Amino acid sequence: MPSDLRKPLMGRQRKKSAGSFWRFSALSALVVIAIGGIGALSVYSALSPGNLQRASTAPDVAMDNGDPNTSAQTPPDKSSVDPLAPQSGRSGANVQRQTMPDGNVVSTFSPRQREGDGPVLMTGQTYGQDPRLAAQPNEDLLEDTAFGRLPKVSAGGLRPMEQYARPWSGSRGTRIAIIVGGLGLSQTGTQKAIRDLPPEVTLGFAASGNSLQRWMQEGRREGHEILLQVPFEPFGYPGTNPGPDTLLVAGPAKLNLERLHRAMGKITNYTGIMNYLGGRFMADEKALEPIIKDIGQRGLLFIDDGSSAQSKSGPVTKALSTAAGFADLQLDDQVNENAILRKLDDLERIARRNGTAIGVASAFDESIGAISKWSVEAAARGIEIVGVSALVSEKTEQ
């Protein structure tokens, strides 16, 4: 026989309905009181000063012992250490930097004694960036200057070329990096490149372009690694002019560095610098050296686009221990899709012979179409397209 609770309300006896009602009301009141108490305790715990402080992100410990030539991380005051405060992957090391007579900076990492026995919450990546945050800069890798926010190496030794790199598989198969440059100069071309190119393709943004910060963010959200293209003096300048703030062979080093920094301040989240034209400037070691030195000290890589046979970037970057890469082929000397596809096949042959290869193209419709089509076919043949930093990093470690 069904219980009264399952009968329609109008069909129940009055006496039993009243009793059930009061029992139900008392039980409901107890449940409401219990839930209210739990909610109040949760709100108090969340808003208490200690817990608010615990939830904040603890920055890496700054390194500075007052000596301009050496610096080391100072262990935090034991009384102020929160064992549950998030720490970066490099905050557990002493870092000592020494400037050598030739101007190179040598960094020495050694383990640091931990303070306390409690658990430590480790956060942050030392290579690559969480895709959900890829459009946002790491504040530890920026310094405020008169030219804007410029890249720098963090207190814990993390470099922009590591933080903003596109992660890759780590396999030792045939790998190719493709850089498509000139983004920012044409709105439609930039949109098409970001929309149609595979995320494995590295994008180069011209410092003289427009809305660079916006395009950078869109490119990073799509998974691309990015470079900043800085205009260097070409042969035939000023008849051939790469744009304002071109670095000139005859210009004083101080002026060229100011122009470099003005370009660097246009965007964030890039792994390195690539020349935009610049055949004459790249052929002059004296003009090139202070530029390459500054790039390396800021934790950036340098890419030579391979357009000048007289370039001295190889010996200069090697002498200054700056991470560098050199393009094997210009892919779109002929702006024709079939010709570009043939060049991509040539690039694949170079990569199969040497293990890796770097190709450079511009954001022409024909280039974007050819690279998009070829990348799918290359993947089926076992070729891995990687961000350019993956190849540069490997070469500097050998």
Care to describe what's here?
This protein is an alpha/beta fold. Helices cover 36% and strands 17% of the residues. The protein contains 12 helices and 15 strands. The strands form 4 sheets. Strands 7, 8, 9, 10, 11, 12, 13, 14 and 15 form a 9-stranded parallel β-sheet that branches. A two-stranded parallel ribbon has the order 1-4. A two-stranded antiparallel ribbon has the order 2-3. Strand 13, helix 10 and strand 14 form a beta-alpha-beta unit. Helix 10 crosses helix 11. The chain is globular. The N terminus is likely disordered.
Discrete helix count: 12
What percentage of amino acids are in beta strands?
Answer: 15-25%
Number of strands: 15
What level of helicity do the residues show?
Answer: 25-40%
Overall 3D form = globular
> Quick one: biggest sheet?
9 strands, parallel
Class by alpha and beta content: alpha/beta
| Quaternary organisation | single chain
Task: Provide a short characterization of the protein structure.
With 398 residues, this protein is α/β, with parallel strands linked by helices. 36% of the residues lie in helices and 17% in strands. α5 links the parallel β8 (202-206) and β9 (226-231).
Summarize the helices and strands and which ones pair or pack.
Layout: H1 14-47, H2 49-55, E1 87-88, E2 93-99, E3 105-111, E4 122-123, E5 142-145, E6 148-151, H3 160-163, E7 175-183, H4 187-196, E8 202-206, H5 212-221, E9 226-231, H6 253-264, E10 272-276, H7 279-282, H8 285-297, E11 301-304, H9 313-319, E12 324-326, E13 329-330, H10 337-354, E14 356-362, H11 365-380, E15 384-385, H12 388-397
Parallel strand pairs: 1-4, 7-8, 7-14, 7-15, 8-9, 9-10, 10-11, 11-12, 13-14
Antiparallel strand pairs: 2-3, 5-6
Helix pairs in contact: 4-11, 6-8, 10-11
